[in-house]
Amino acid sequence: MDAVSWEAPDADHPARRAARASMDAAAGGRKEEWLGLFGPDAVIEDPVGPSLLDPEGKGHRGPDGIERFWDENISRVREFRFRVSDSFANGPACANVVSITTTLDGGATMTIDCVTVYTVDESGLITSFRAHWEPDRAIATLTSP
């Protein structure tokens, strides 16, 4: 089974390409490749607003903030499975309806149902990644091995 299951419209669009590349690099644990997808002033809001991952809700900004987000969050996931069920691309952005299943060390799994919005610049680098999901709903799916 592929780590990224794309069951949505897939007409070529720069933000859609960036979204797919981001999911693929995260699922493959390829940190440098993933970091290279972001522009120098990029921001990640995952989830949007205050949360345990971002108590002030201001996002993870610039190369240092985005690398820290990888180190503190993405690197802790042993396995990702992305299922994209819908995708809307227009202007410089793409919004995807995604179900992300993560397997953590020890085998626990959690599913995050969300809408992710990728915005890119003229060269196709991600300037903004916003993930809209509810942590309480995701935690409710947490299962132990």
TrEMBL record:
A Pfam family it matches: SnoaL_2
Source taxon at top rank: Bacteria
Domain named SnoaL-like: residues: 20-128
Location of region: Disordered: 1-20
InterPro entries registered for this protein in UniProt: NTF2-like_dom_sf, SnoaL-like
Name of the protein in question: Nuclear transport factor 2 family protein
